[in-house]
Design goal:
Length: about 325
């Protein structure tokens, strides 16, 4: 759909690199007999971070879809049995995590990015770096390459030994959920309501298939009407892009104003009824989270700080360390034992 411009564009704020602030926390998470730490590979694979950055940048130069694809892939990996690269497994029987409805928009470019990085890392330091750590670093790099913040990534995750489609049910939030349900699902991973609101800001980049929100346009809550929390202009534009009988392959930008820039415009959109999903718009319509949305809309630095802190917390969910799991040589397959 077309980029729609409003008269009041958010001020462009100067973005400082805020990594230094986070470095002071020396955070180390322990789960499975080991601990995560930023310097985990400093001796065993000192070039790791520069390799990841270069390969992710190369891939992004080929297609900007790399940005949302990698970011969403990391979220889905972490929310289903922890950040353990279980989402990357390809199963001949099609019964792995990726073989579920929610993988629809897990664009192939996300998987491809991780696989390319892994291939280069294996040449440099074979058998040392986990696929789950590569995905965590790549998620940081895509955000930063889209003009978003840069933070220090904790490392030392090990890769899962299982990946089951049947484990996905109920773990991922749905676009029709309201604040209470969203908060509950994030709480399963030890994440707060504030983390939920900050991480939802990832919808400042990427695409959604029309079929994920057409009920809001044509039959909201079974009423046959349009959701009244939509801005009228936005709903009209979406109806043009996504007619009633729209094919399930058609997608639109989730942030219609700045679709490929990682900024706080997602929150400003919510103030104007430009939230694409119910799960987006309710963050503003529900008083439980409205003040946070206003704050992030008014102050990009405040959003970036919260987003970085929440991404670090997301990266600790259910991690395998120490003797758990394995270091996969091919991210799409378990090692042969
Ligand atoms: C808060 C609850 C959330 C819900 C209900 C939700 C739901 C969705 C849905 C339905 C889509 C469109 C998928 C499709 O077209 O099939 C989507 C896309 C996306 N989501 Fe979320 N999401 C949530 C949180 C997050 C979080 C925490 C992140 C990352 C930190 C994230 C990152 C993304 C990205 C980047 C895309 C665009 C994907 C692309 O363009 O390939 N989402 N989300
Ligand atoms: C990607 O493109 C940018 C801008 O054109 C360029 O500066 C950068 O060197 C490219 N990176 C890679 C790895 O190709
Ligand atoms: C709207 O939703 C209701 C309830 O789910 C359903 O019974 C009805 O058939 C739908 N109408 C249309 C036009 O799809
Ligand atoms: C924006 O948020 C940052 C970080 O929380 C804070 O230091 C700064 O004072 C805020 N700026 C304004 C104008 O409120
Ligand atoms: C990209 C991907 O793995 N897509 C799969 C998602 O799940 C469906 C249903 O199992 C598969 O048919 C797709 O191949």
């Amino acid at each position: 759909m077309e980029k729609r411009r409003r008269s009041m564009m958010p001020a462009v704020l100067a973005v400082a690199l805020l990594a230094a602030m986070l470095l002071s926390s020396e955070a180390a998470y322990s789960g499975g007999g080991g601990a995560l730490s930023p310097g985990y590979y400093s001796k065993s694979c000192s070039k790791l971070e520069s390799i990841v950055r270069e390969e992710v940048a190369r891939k992004k130069n080929e297609t900007v879809v790399t940005i949302p694809a990698v970011l969403r892939l990391f979220f889905h990996d972490c929310f289903v049995n922890g950040c353990d690269a279980s989402v990357l497994i390809a199963s001949a029987k099609e019964d792995a995590e990726k073989n579920t409805r929610d993988n629809d928009s897990l664009a192939g470019d996300g998987y491809d990015t991780v696989n390319r990085v892994k291939a280069r890392v294996e040449k440099e330091c074979p058998g040392v770096v986990s696929c789950s750590d590569i995905l965590a670093l790549a998620a940081r790099d895509v955000v930063n390459l889209a003009d978003g913040p840069y933070w220090t990534v904790e490392l030392g995750r090990r890769d899962a030994l299982v990946s089951r489609a049947s484990d996905v049910e109920g773990k991922l939030p749905g676009p029709d959920m309201k604040v209470r349900e969203l908060t509950a699902i994030f709480k399963n991973g030890g994440l707060s309501q504030l983390d939920m609101v900050a991480l939802s800001g990832a919808h400042t980049v990427g695409f959604s298939h029309c079929t994920r929100f057409t009920d809001r346009l044509y039959n909201f809550s079974g009423t046959g009407k349009t959701d009244s929390s939509f801005s009228k202009d936005y709903a009209e534009a979406l109806k043009k892009a996504c007619p009633r009988d729209v094919s399930d392959t058609i997608a639109v930008n989730m942030d219609p104003i700045t679709p490929i820039t990682f900024d706080n415009n997602y929150y400003t959109n919510l103030l104007h009824g430009f939230g694409l999903f119910t799960s987006d718009q309710v963050l503003y319509t529900d008083s439980a989270s409205r003040e946070t949305v206003k704050q992030f809309s008014a102050n990009q630095t405040s959003f970036f700080e919260a987003f970085m802190a929440s991404m670090i917390k997301l990266g600790r969910v259910g991690v395998k360390t120490g003797d758990s799991g394995e270091i996969r040589t091919d991210c799409t397959a378990f090692n042969k034992h």
